[in-house]
Structures are given as C-alpha cells and as structure tokens.
Predict the 3D structure of the following.
Amino acid sequence: MWSAEHLDTVSRRGTRPVVLEIGRETGAGAAEGESGLRAYTEGHIPGAHYVPFERDMVGAPAEDSGPNPLPSAGDLERRLRAWGVHDGSTVVVHTRQNPAVAARAWWVLRWAGVENTLFLDGGLAAWRAIGGALDTRVPPPGAGTAVARPGSLPVLTARDAERLAASGHLLDARAPEAYAGDPRRPGTGHIPGAHSLPGSGNFTGGRLRDAAELTARYGAHLDGRPLGAYCGSGVSATTTVLALASLGIQAALYPGSWSEWITDPARPAATGDRPGAPEPSAA
C-alpha cells in the first residue's frame, strides 16, 4: 500500500516505480473503459501505462468458469515486460474510480510473482489532491525481463471454498441483497457457511479504512483459522484480501466466485441474511 505522498516523494528522488492505471474497455464495462482511456490520454500520472482490465487482468472464460478467470502465465509475462517490469521492480497500480478494479490488478500481479506490487490508496484522486502533476505523453513499450510465477498467492477452488466455509472463515464480498438471494430463484444466494462482509465497506471516501476500523470490521473472523474471500466474479473480493493484507493477514481468493459456483447445479446454495449450515465435505 502506498499513499500519493509517498509515490510523489519516491518519484522526485528519481526512483520512479512502474505505474499502471487500470481501466475497462470491453464487455459490460465498455462505455466506462472507453471514457477511461480518453481521460487517461488527457492527463495521467507521469509515466503511467494504461492497462485495459479485461484484456490484461482476465483470462479466457470457459463454460465452467466465471467471467473473470485468471490470465495465463505467458500472457501476463508478455504484458509485464511490455510495461518495463523486471524481477524486483516496484509496481504501483491505481484506478480513477472503482478501487476494486485496482485491487484485482494488485492481486493478479502478486499472484503472478510480482512481489513488490503496491496499491495506490485513493487512486488518481489522491494524486491530484496533493497537487501531483499530470502528463499527456503515453510511455513507449518497455523492455522488461520479469518472469511470471503464477501461484504466488493462495487460490481457492470451488471444493476448497466449500471446505473452508466449514473449517475456517469464507467471506462473501458482494452486496447484502446478492448474498441473501431469493429462495424462489435458482442460482441466487450464497455458499453455505459463508459470511457476508461487502467489499465496499473496506473503503471510505475512496480510501482504504484505517487499521483500527478494519480490525473491528473483521474481528469476529480473526481467530487464527484460515480465511478466504469470494464475490460475484472474483473482482470485489480482492478488496477483502487487500484489506486483510494491510493488517498483515493472508486470505485466499476464490477467483471463480459465485458465477463459477453456480455452473454446477449440484453445488448447494443458501439464501437469507445468515450463513446457513456449511455442507459436510470430504477429507
């Protein structure tokens, strides 16, 4: 986690990190992404590369996956090198509006072995608030040498998530109404045993809540048992992983999340505002 002030200080010392502005360009986020790209070309953090979310942070969906599966190691490595990332580089990710998009990029890059990937708290708004300069020049492709090492962060499969709901703490980062679902509508609800903690609650005024607030928010689940998070499609749950990481606590991500869970009609669903009984799972 970096503040805008820290990024400014480091940059003035001549040790500028690789800065990535995460936006959306295709699919459901097309309009947002196109306007985001236009805004980037009109002014961005000096040296920042524009990173289309669906192209660079998402792999090819399959019939039994959610819409945002993990990208392949080869694709990620090519992109890291084009951004000028080397093994040991510091990478700072941010977005203009939705912190969950930057949190997903933060998680994907750390999962791929880019250990020094940092989330810019408050995003571009925080940079502008301190009087940070904006640039219209688009940086040329870099010549990085980074090697992608997928698996550098813990990942849950559907079976893992089911087991964790019974043996640890599985946290649902969706809005309360999505978590509750409707017993009359198949495919709604939540993984039995999962607890509702919306990812939006990790932020206030576009910035991550402080340690005391986050500790209070997650306190009931900080008993030493393993933690995992999921959401609708593997994006907003990364804010849960980020929030816990800011407290020095590791949580696993279920990238497929609810949209993958419901591709198998045999998987159970609970409805209502309570976790429900977790399903017994094989050892």
The CA atoms of residues 19 and 48 lie 5 Å apart. The radius of gyration is 19 Å. The beta strands are 18-23, 49-52, 91-94, 117-119, 169-172, 195-196, 203-204, 207-208, 227-230, 252-253. The chain has a mean pLDDT of 93.
